[in-house]
Amino acid sequence: MDFTIRAATPEDCKDISRMIIELSDYEKMADQVKISHEELKRDGFCQNPFYQCLIAEVPEEHKTKDGHVNVGYALFFYTYSTWKGKCVYMEDLYVMPEFRGKGIGKALMSSVAKVGKEQQCARLQLSVLDWNTPSMDFYIARDAQDLTKSEGWHLLRFDGAALDKLAEEAPKK
Amino acid sequence: MADFNLRKAEPKDVTDILRLIKELAKFEEMEEQVVLTEKELLEDGFGEHPFYHCLVAEVPADRRSRDGHTVVGFAMYYFTYDPWIGKLLYLEDFYVMPEYQGYGMGSHIFKRLSETAVKTRCSSMHFIVAEWNSKSIEFYKRRGAADLSLEEGWRLFEIDKQSLLKMAK
């Protein structure tokens, strides 16, 4: 099947938002999506964007039954390692179920890798849920290492009331 | 010893920042993995588009370290993005020299970072910790941090440079 991988535009934000919700549903966390396509637009297309996004688009004749031609996306940003410098972090990679198995996921990820290469990034990182075997297999097939397993790294989060409380306690000097 | 100043890092601080990065890496038993240079720290942190932000903890000259340093701690962070909740503050590294630990410096740094997160409209602060580092894990959990690897099953994956270049072809 023919498809194109291209940079997202502000007009794509409604589609990106739709696919973000689809992915969160697959990850069994749909109730955790709090932001809308307007916030995505504000944060991704301002002067210093907080993320970058690639879209996988199919021609009209292959559009979904709901009329969508944007059928996949990869959302990523730069991070920084104090050991190695600039890195790229792929936050989301998603292809609509009926378009899987056609190389779209691989093409999206290769495109992220290409951006990482152009920016001289030392590595690409991402996170996967431990029950998500199809995704883990996909990444392992591309030489990804599970650092939680091999080196014991855990992801910690600090939010809500705990974050607010600490912030209020910050000394004023 | 409560007298210290927490301030934004400046270009002149890159030598100290790299020294502290290497000390922390040594503590994590990964010292040989630090390949970053002062030149890269300078370009990447103080150029037109900074890839990171840094706070440094500085003591007065009369409290300088055994080796004569007055910059005795640092925290490096940057902004990331969660498509579900928006901007996040990601804490990359956070370290206070052992001879200055136990005086509340780490706690002070952490509070300042939290304040920055809230002021810049971040929904939360994320970071990673090695599971054997119980001292750090306790520090964070005492302040309300959730372990997403344990609670939700998130695993960190990495593709190194060689494999990245292979994929980019």
TrEMBL record, chain A:
Residues 3-173 form the N-acetyltransferase domain. GO terms for molecular function: N-acetyltransferase activity. Transmembrane segments: none annotated. It comes from the Eukaryota. GO terms for biological process: polyamine metabolic process. Gene3D superfamilies: 3.40.630.30. The keyword Transmembrane helix does not apply. Pfam families: Acetyltransf_1. Keywords: Acyltransferase, Transferase. Belongs to the acetyltransferase family. This is Thialysine N-epsilon-acetyltransferase-like. It comes from Clupea harengus (Atlantic herring).
UniProtKB/TrEMBL annotation, chain B:
Its EC number is 2.3.1.57. It catalyses: spermidine + acetyl-CoA = N(1)-acetylspermidine + CoA + H(+); an alkane-alpha,omega-diamine + acetyl-CoA = an N-acetylalkane-alpha,omega-diamine + CoA + H(+); spermine + acetyl-CoA = N(1)-acetylspermine + CoA + H(+). It is an enzyme of class 2 (transferase). Keywords: Acyltransferase, Cytoplasm, Transferase. GO terms for cellular component: cytoplasm. InterPro entries: Acyl_CoA_acyltransferase, Diverse_Substrate_AcTransf, GNAT_dom. GO terms for molecular function: diamine N-acetyltransferase activity; spermidine binding. Its main location: cytoplasm. Residues 4-169 form the N-acetyltransferase domain. PROSITE patterns: GNAT. GO terms for biological process: putrescine catabolic process; spermidine acetylation. It comes from the Eukaryota. Pathway: Amine and polyamine degradation; putrescine degradation; N-acetylputrescine from putrescine: step 1/1. It is found in: Cytoplasm. Homodimer. Belongs to the acetyltransferase family. This is Diamine acetyltransferase 1. It comes from Clupea harengus. The lineage of its organism: Eukaryota, Metazoa, Chordata, Craniata, Vertebrata.
